[in-house]
Amino acid sequence: MSGEAQLEALLQIINTSARQAIAEYKKGGNDAPTINSTEFHPIDFATDTVALKKAVRLLEGACQQLCASLAPPQHTVINFAQSYDWACTGVVLRTKVADALQKYPKGLHVSELSQMVGLEKGKLSRVLRVLASKGCFTEVETDVFANNRLSLITLTSSNPGCLARIHAQDVSQGAEVLYETMTEPDYASSYEPDKAPLIYALKKKGLKGSFFDWMKEDAERRENYHRAMIGLGDIMGSLSVLHHYPWNEVKTVCDVGASIGTFSIPLAKMYPHLKITDQDLPEVLVQAKDVWTKDAPQALQSSQVEFIALNFFEESPVKGKDAYYLRNIIHDWPDAEAAIILRNVRKAMEPHSRLLIHDYVLTPASRKPTADYMGADVAPEPMLPNFGAGNSRMYQQDLNMWFIHNAKERTLDDSISLGSAAGLRLEKVYDLAESAVLEFKLA
Ligand SMILES: C[S@@+](CC[C@H](N)C(=O)[O-])C[C@H]1O[C@@H](n2cnc3c(N)ncnc32)[C@H](O)[C@@H]1O
C-alpha cells in the first residue's frame, strides 16, 4: 500500500468505527454523547460493552496512528514526555473539585471554587484548563468551570476515580524511579515483588515488604484499593464476561482472590443457579462480607455464596469446583509466584474443572500468522496488529503491574507456557475487546 493509500485506509477505519460507536450509543433511543454532555450515558456503566469497545479500539488506534503519521515527529515525541495529565487529575481527585462543582451546574468561578477546595485560584485554573482542553470539565467562560460527563469520573463516589487516584498518587512514585530501578544492581535484574519501583520509592519512607503489606497497614488505603478494583472492572469492561462466557454450563464457581465480590456479586445476581465460593485473604473477607450484606443479602440468606479464607501461595482453593475464576490476579505476580498460584489451583481441579484467567492479553506490535492469535482479535491493515493506541491501557497496565508488583501483563505465549508448566492446557480465548478470558483445562 502506498503512503497515501495507508492514510486513506486509516481515515476509512475512523469513519466506519466512529459510526459504529454512535450506533451503539443510540441503541435504546438515546442520543450519542458529546464533549458537552453533563450526565452519564446509560451505556457508560452497562455490563456488556463489547460492541462499543470494539468500535472505540479501532477508532482510538486509527486516530493516533494517523496523527503520529502526519504530525511533525518532534511534536509527537514531546507529547509523550510532557503529558502531566496524571498530575492534574491527581490534584482534582485529592481536593474533590468535582464534588465541589456538583451544586453549580452552570459553573463556578475559580475565585470561589479555590476557596472551597483550598487551592490558589491562578494555579487551580491552570490545572483545570489542562483537563478541560482534553474534555474533562467544561470551561463555560473564562475561569468558570463546570462538571461534565468526564469530570464526573473524578467524584469521590466514583470507583474508577479510586483507581485514578492510586495511579496519580501511588503508581506515579514508582514511575518516577523507573530508571534507577533499571540500573541499580540490586533491582535491575530482579523480579521479586519487593524490588518493584513503587516499593523502591516507599522503602525510603520506611516500608518493609511488598505492596500488599503496605495495603494491610491502612484501612482507608485498603478500602480505596478494593473500590478501585470495581473501578478497574468498569474501565476494562470486564463484566462483559457475564454475557460472553457460558455460565449456564457450570454450577459451581470459585472466585480466587475475589476481593469484595467485584465480579461474584453481579455473577450471583445474574445467575442464581450458581453456587459461589469467594476466597481471599482473611482481612479482605471481613470487608467482603459487609459489601455482600449490603449489596446482595439474598445471596447470603440462600447460602448461594460462601467465604473461605485463602493464602494462594500456601494452599489450594476448595476442591472440585466447575470453574476457578482468577480476575486480575495472575498479572499481580512475577512468573515464579504466578506459577505457585496456578499449581495450587490445579491441585484443586478435577477433569470437569476449568480455570479462567481474566486479564489483559498483550500482543506484539508486529504482525503474526492469524492462527497464532487463537481467536483473539487482530486489527486490520494498515493499523498496527495490536490496535496500537486503541489498546494503550493494556500496555500502560503492564507498566503499572511492573511499578507496583514487579509483575506484568502477559502475551498469549507467556500464559500458555505458564499454564503448561502447571499442568494446564489452553482451550479457548474469549476476547472481550479490552480484557480477555483464557480458559484452561487439565493437560
Ligand atoms: C488486583 S486484586 C483483584 C481482585 C478481584 N479478583 C477483581 O478482579 O476485582 C488482587 C486480589 O488478590 C488478593 N490477594 C493478594 N494476595 C493474596 C494471597 N496471598 N492469597 C489470596 N488472595 C490474595 C488481594 O487481596 C486482592 O483482592
TrEMBL record:
Keyword S-adenosyl-L-methionine: yes
Listed GO MF terms: O-methyltransferase activity
GO biological process, alphabetically ordered: methylation
All residue ranges annotated as the O-methyltransferase C-terminal domain in the record: 210-414
Entry keyword Methyltransferase: yes
PROSITE patterns: SAM_OMT_II
Superkingdom as given in the UniProt entry: Eukaryota
Listed name of the protein: O-methyltransferase C-terminal domain-containing protein
UniProt KW keywords: Methyltransferase, S-adenosyl-L-methionine, Transferase
Signal peptide location: none
Species per Swiss-Prot/TrEMBL record: Hydnomerulius pinastri MD-312
PANTHER family, sorted: O-METHYLTRANSFERASE CICE, PUTATIVE (AFU_ORTHOLOGUE AFUA_4G14580)-RELATED
